[in-house]
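Figure 3 (text version): structure tokens given as input.
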């Protein structure tokens, strides 16, 4: 993946220095960077059982700090959530976190053995997440890349992005879907959301969905931002299972399509051309499921 123009320079030696200074109990463990399609954080494996996450760019500093603040509050869900083992600080001006390593593999389509079961598990996970106390929790906004805000507030961002990728998608239909989604109101209350439920943030073991990682975009907002996983990740054969398990009405379902469209178009318009091919492939898959890829 092509580095960002404002990429923070982080390597194994830098991480080892942080450990020696702040967490010497782990300083002798081997450190190695893990390849990821993620755009906000650098991930380093620490020995066999731990992983360190640090922000890759200045815009991710506050996002990771918020995650470190609130992740302990989000434990006890039906799927595994990373457990923070240590929180440190770099003199470069950012926090970093040391977490348990979650065994398994990225939940790419060919890794899931039972899509009906996976869709049910993810729906049950979201229902439990929505019951988490939101008192004092961060609202959706700039600190979570605006995942879960009112859809219409993103119109100025998505319209030019749709036009940029008009050579790949049915732009007129995309604009129409967006307009329709923006008319669908949130009838319930704002709840905790993960904010980025796509394959590389979901972990499977032995073909079974087991965990949810990378909570940097979590906040309290419109849960349809997470229902968009019905188009990001859930196999079409299990989409109705997911919807019915959550008892989603037409408004929820339409907004989920709006959030899926937004995520896919924004990513594809920025990253295509070799900057992040994995994310572009995922975006094109989402757009094809929305019936918009030409």
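Below: residues designed for each position.
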């Amino acid at each position: 993946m092509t580095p960002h123009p404002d990429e923070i320079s982080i390597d194994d030696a830098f991480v080892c220095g942080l450990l020696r200074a702040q967490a010497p109990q782990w300083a002798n463990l081997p450190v190695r960077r893990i390849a990821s399609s993620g755009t906000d954080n650098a991930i380093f494996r620490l020995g066999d059982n731990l992983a360190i996450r640090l922000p890759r760019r200045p815009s991710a500093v506050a996002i990771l700090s918020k995650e470190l603040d609130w992740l302990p509050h989000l434990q006890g869900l039906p799927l595994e959530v990373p457990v923070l083992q240590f929180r440190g600080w770099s003199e470069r001006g950012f926090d970093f976190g040391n977490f348990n390593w979650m065994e398994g593999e990225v939940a790419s389509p060919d890794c899931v053995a039972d899509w009906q079961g996976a869709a049910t598990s993810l729906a049950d996970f979201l229902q439990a997440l929505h019951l988490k106390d939101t008192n004092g929790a961060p609202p959706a906004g700039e600190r979570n890349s605006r995942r879960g805000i009112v859809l219409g507030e993103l119109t100025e961002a998505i319209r030019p992005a749709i036009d940029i990728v008009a050579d790949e998608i049915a732009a007129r239909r995309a604009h129409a879907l967006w307009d329709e989604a923006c008319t669908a109101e949130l009838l319930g209350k704002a709840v905790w959301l993960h904010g980025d439920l796509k394959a590389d943030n979901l972990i499977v073991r032995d073909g079974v969905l087991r965990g949810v990682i990378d909570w940097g975009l979590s906040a309290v907002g419109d849960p349809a931002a997470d229902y968009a996983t019905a188009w990001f990740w859930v196999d079409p054969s299990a989409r109705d299972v997911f919807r019915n398990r959550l008892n989603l009405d037409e408004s929820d379902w339409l907004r989920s399509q709006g959030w899926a469209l937004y995520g896919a178009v924004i990513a594809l318009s920025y990253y295509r051309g070799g900057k992040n091919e994995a994310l572009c492939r995922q975006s094109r898959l989402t757009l094809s499921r929305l019936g918009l890829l030409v």
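The first strand starts at residue 31 and ends at 34.
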